[in-house]
């Protein structure tokens, strides 16, 4: 079971990662730690308009003194590899058992849930792969309270929060003047905006594939179109629930979400819709590409067939003529037996006949347009 | 009619089992017992925080003393093969005739219905087959009252409630501190979670088929893709109404469902949605696979055609040349009649001509890229 | 026009029957009688808990004395072939002109309409054909009043109400204790349940076709798949509005539908949804079958092509070799002219060469796997 | 621009007619007259229960005296070819500029709009072509006031209102007893019912095409299926908004629509839904036909391929045998050089060998079932 | 990043332009100027019923004196190439930072947003390309206040507002009598109506392609169908949100939108729906075209195959016959060895046999209808 929750990330398991599951009938709130998961590293950023603390801490308990102050505390846990630390985290932040389960079970669907004082937001972050078309995907859980925000990421690598950290460190924009809910918005916004670079790669790759399909479709092309379709399917499954999450934050009147946040969240919502639009668009384009691929293969086969037909249709009758004059009828027994063989111009006439037949057929093919590409 | 209600389970009838039906125009509330159905075995688990009774009982009447106590009684009937026992069960639990009909008719759609004091929940459980990709599916009916839960399963084999029984026996989690409605939730949750292992098998099988389709598509592959599509269709039909059932339990304010159950049911609902997501995802993937299969077959045909064309196009002209010099024109009658036959280097020149023609054609094919795989 | 309303039932017109129409611009409430329609036969069943009258009557007026009594009167008219009788019926039951039009126009969509004291329900009954896969479909109109129910069927043959009549005659179940609205429910339920045996036939036929498509697809198979798709389309068009009819009966609060009827109607509604589910399922399966058929035809063609390619590719080079040694170059003029012909082992060597070539090609094909079935 | 509004009707432009448009950025309310449009002819029918005037008038002003009387006045303008007359019409009926624009712009989508005292209904009428499968489509605008109804048709030819005129003239049904809103309903109903004969033609043509596709699919068949799909698409686009129009008349509580009209309008609504059903049905059927066509073409190709394969596979080996014995190895140089040529039964044995080979192959093909049709 | 926001417009990037994105995690309200963007040119039109100012201005500040007057001021900024000017514009019009971001980020989805005194409308304008089928697309942002309207266009070229400017200049229609909100409507209406000429081009091109597909399908045709599908996809993505924008303006009761505007906006809404209808229609038609293309290619291949089969099937048996009489069996050794060779009419009989075989086969093909086009 533990193995299910955390497979080594790689091409093969990417698609099925979100499909992992918890054991049927297990106690709700159970947490199961994958042995291969990286140990958690914890970062604490505590800030207000004037002061800033940004450090890595070793134990969850170290952040206790920061939580009750009026300044905003962002505790960012990266990695899920220690049941002990997670349990202590749950104690420090007084997490509901179902919250802890959702945070640890990395196959959750993005959602938002209200637990009295805390708001749990499950999101999923995508980060583009280095050079190739593809992405890493990992779950990020937010636990939002009045003065702090706890975020738990699946892995320490790949993270699209760097620019938010920089905005806090360098006090860019209004982030230092706002509360924890603005921080949550900023991170959610970074997650949604993180879909764009991933999609851009797909857009570029699709344009290359269009070129390929039209000009030299190969089995490799087919495989890639299929692969992209699959990955777009996965992106679609990932982005859809995010829209609902943001919509719920806007409409359902959670106490922890100020009215001032609404225009920002609406902006974020618009971006989520735009991502969905793009995914749907790319899906339709790849579906169209598949059709074009099939047509291109048919066209190619047509060309091959035409070539065979032209060659066969020209040479088979010629060979037949040659065959006739290769027959051994005895010309001495009868003047009707292949007198052509003894004619003075027999051979040249025979060659001329062949030339006429071949030329006539070639002309016919040319008129049918079979010499041009189909 | 009886035969319809209960066919021996096996590959052939699996898909059509849910499609069986009750006789048009029969009296509502009629119960018809399939002769082949296994006789019911009845288990009673009665528990509260401190005490526990877990035993098999022989007659429905044996559980009467447990029903009125404040402790939670779970009566689990497995098998539908005796009209007598079912009728006595109906008397013991004072079931409405329509409830009894729904419980016995194993082709019901999952649903929830309120009968004054009792809540009837019809669900459908799937259990993965042993080694192969596939599943057994059976109906489970819940009759929930304040202090007891009656569950009726179609068959005694295959059941995903074992872990719940263990939680009760070993008093794991909070189950012993909660009422009958928590037990109903726990079982429903086990049913929903039971879809995951089934789906995981399909996921794995689909990944294998992807490999197969790309590399060596066979008629067998086609058959399997089709089979998986059919079975996913069936899973989809099974999971959809469950979502409505859970949603109804959350929203429709049944008296027997406490407010405290809501977070748990919401969790269960999320899992149902996740199952639906996965089923839809797999369906889309298999549809895509079908397209790829068709393309792969076309590609394969293309390759065959190219091979034929290359061989034919090279040898047919050569054969024609050989045919020419096999003609019997009389070289003695005229110097124009095939003088080549008497040349000193006639044969070597002829062979050279053939080599040039063959080489030229081969070069042309090579340039067209026909020697590489399509 | 009359011809439109009533074509002789048969395979050809079945699909288009529901598509017949009333003359554009005709007076609303016009009734037009098809000459070929069978003359109406009228049955009267009048019953209460203790007494029962069940007889055929000749004129609509004969049922007048029964209508005002408190006992339930069911007047069942079968056949629409007499304008006179229909008009007298309208007088006896004081039908609104639009009601009469709807009853007579057998191409109406199922619907429910409230005419002050009366409730008009239009339904469509399907009855499976004798041995083959297919069904007869006919319109049944219900006019429900407090104490009586008038039903008008399109034809006297094929009817799925027999079991309801038997329940009344033998006083099975609660039907004799209930009012006219329960009778209407019982008949509606019989109509909905009547879809199941029809669908079961399709299910069986589809399973046979699956076998056929995989193993020996023929043009006949294609035609049957297409035919089934068409008929499922028609079933779908028929069942969908029934669901709305029953839903409307449950939700729209008609005075004539008691509150006690609701659980029964909900049960009926569940069955209608189940029918829809099955139809959709079968439609998806037949769509999949079509894809599989196409693939199977492609596969078959592939096999043919491979056979041709193997035979051609092996024999064409051999024939070329034979052609070479059939050339007539004069071996006496030069030692370079086909010296092989005069070698001592010329012929055996030539045969050996052919064997090597053929064997090599056969090996190559075998390695490519072309000898196994694709 | 003018040209856009009114192209000569014919096969080519039919599909794109509804797609014409008004100049971007032009003043709302602009009317542009197409030069080719037929000049308007105006008919006036003024009636009440006892009196009737039915005449053609020359100027819009002629109908002024009829408008204010309590009798119903129906002014029917056919043709849009004169800006002057249309403008005078607008003055006589005090039309809002946007109403006039909508009336003249024949590419409007069917809709209903309330302009204080008047109700504007835009509808689109279809009339079947003479003998062939197809239809003319033209816009009809209704301007309904308390005592009069103004209808403006695009062209004087083709019109499905004849039966309504007859009902007024001969005082059939209740039309003479009702107000202008009943007249509007009667015409709208005639328009909706006018779809049925058009669809019936398509139904018949589709049945013919089914036959054709199964038995002798030709390129012509493909073209027709495509054409029918296109025209059904257009019918669908035409009928959908009509449903909304009628629904709006029923639900939106316009003052000019009496409560008594509701049952009639509901009837009309049911017919519109039935038309939509039929169109969708035909669309699904033609889509299925396209699939069948593709399969039939594949089957046909398969047959051709099998024929070629049978012929080639039988004769190519035979020709090879003949080729062997056509070789010129010198039998005198060695006893190993084609001794068969000098055998006493050499030739008969050779023919026998050929017969055996041919027979064996033919048997193999027969066993494979290649001689039967695929 | 800047590069993303503004790529040089051209065929390649057109489709992906709307897909550009803002940097994940950047400060909300950031504006980033693309270096390649053309510098803004600013036009001011200030008008009321009697006076009119229409001039180009150099700095945003020049329009300050016009803004507070009661006359309507339309400030039209074309080009986004200067951060300085845009910032000063934001100051002059006191724009919210998010408004400025939306205006500058040319990849926004059309939307309407209320910022207290101002209404922000994001729209997207399409302008048809010169001679070919295609379009330029650019974002237009509206900032509407009580007395002024600020519009910001992405580029100075291509603009469909000319006719509106003319209506103001020449005081055509009621535009000079109305406020800024009427101007906003007029421009929005011009944008929506601007879709029609673009679509008309596609309609014409599709009709040409239909012809092409039926008569001489080429690879080029396939490519064009694919291209049109892609561009229609993009048009669909562009027009859909416009409908929501206009609907929101009608329904959401913005203070700046008078009640009198409603009929005009409803008219505009109808046009947007009509555009959507047309786009969907064209999409369905091109999908159908793709199917027809595939069928046409199959048909073409069929023809080629039939030709090959006819030629091969006729000549291969003939060549076999010729081969037989080319064998060298020694006629002197035995009377059974090819006695035909010494017959008096051997050769003519042989030719006759060939003629009979060829004629028979040709007849068979003719009867199969293979000489006619498939």
Automatic annotation (TrEMBL), chains A, B, C, D, E:
Chain spans, region Disordered: 1-20
GO cellular component: plasma membrane
Transmembrane parts of this sequence: 307-325, 345-366
Membrane topology reported for the UniProt record: Multi-pass membrane protein
Single Gene Ontology MF annotation: magnesium ion transmembrane transporter activity
Top-rank taxon, per record: Bacteria
Cross-referenced InterPro entries: CorA_cytoplasmic_dom, CorA_TM1_TM2, Mg/Co-transport_prot_CorA, MgTranspt_CorA/ZnTranspt_ZntB
Cell compartments where the protein resides: Cell membrane; Membrane
One Pfam family named in its UniProt record: CorA
Compositionally biased residues, Basic residues: 1-15
Alphabetical UniProt keywords: Cell membrane, Ion transport, Magnesium, Membrane, Transmembrane, Transmembrane helix, Transport
Function description: Mediates influx of magnesium ions.
Family: Belongs to the CorA metal ion transporter (MIT) (TC 1.A.35) family.
PANTHER family: CORA FAMILY METAL ION TRANSPORTER (EUROFUNG)
Protein name per its UniProtKB record: Magnesium transport protein CorA
Organism: Iningainema tapete BLCC-T55
Recorded name of the encoding gene: corA
